[in-house]
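Why does residue order matter? Because the sequence determines the fold. Keep that principle in mind as you read this record.
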Amino acid sequence: MAAVVVVVAAVAVGVTDLFAGGHSATPGVTANNADPTSLQTVAREDLSSQTEVSATLGYAGSYSVVNQTQGTVTSLPAIGQVVNQGQVLYEVSGTPVVLLYGSTPAYRSLSEDVTGTDVEELNADLVALGYVTSTELSPTSDEFTYATEVGVEKLQKALGVTQNGTLSLGQAVFEPSAVRVTSLSATLGAAAQAGQPVFSATSTTRQVSIALDAAEQSEVAVGDKVTITLPNSQTTPGVISSVGTVATTPASGSSSSTPTITVLVNPSDPAATGSWDQAPVDVTITTGTVSHALVVPIDALLAQASGGYAVEVVGTGGAHYLVPVTLGLFDDADGLVQVTGTGLAAGQQIVVPNL
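Structure:
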């Protein structure tokens, strides 16, 4: 990631200046170093590569609840209110509009002998709400049967409206899940028109959204574990659930012009994230792990004139010599890097500059 490149570049420049004129890139050559240094031990341990990014904590999904009937708006939900399956969303001329679950929006009246995905949604809702049983009506059936009619009548009775067994257009709104009201578009006492938005909402599912530098897309993947630092400085784990594939450029006038992709995170313990909405949080992403790796401090890396890096080993009798190394995983949090090099082993002492 870019953060890693910056760290390595800084180390390379700093260390090259510190040891200018003192080292050869060939192992076995004694190094002369008059600058302040300390010794660190080469170790074997598990290593994780992590990067920290800014993010926003809120709720998944964005819905616009649209009215499909004529009349006067006589009841509206409160902002922040959660409406579940089978509950009233709002009222038009005193008639309640109920929330049912489904991804296909209401676009017609539903009655006996009608078929389609909207009927399948209705059947599943009637079973889920207990107005009919799954033995009386299959929740995957897309046919409006007598059992569907009976279930609709029971739903209408619960709502206190005429029990005619037909679900008229405008009597129900289909949304994928429970909704949490975020803003109102309609006004009490105003005329209600078909196709008019009533309010905006989200789901009740907690989610963290990251606007990640598009250049870092390949560094993250669905399933990567993260740590979310909440506004109160407490932390809670999460897992990346989605990595965007389309980059967007910030609007003109933004402080950044870097294209970004959207990365979504599901908190492992949603209750631990409280009720913050659109709150700024930090997310530490674990992008890779290795077990039993040979590791050294990042500061121990010495840039070689011919390219690549080496570490300065203190050998028998205190002799110093350079061992070229190949770099692996970086752990920026602990300042460590995975290395491999001929003759380099756990327990050896290496020189680290006191920067």
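Residues 1-32 have pLDDT under 50 and may be disordered.
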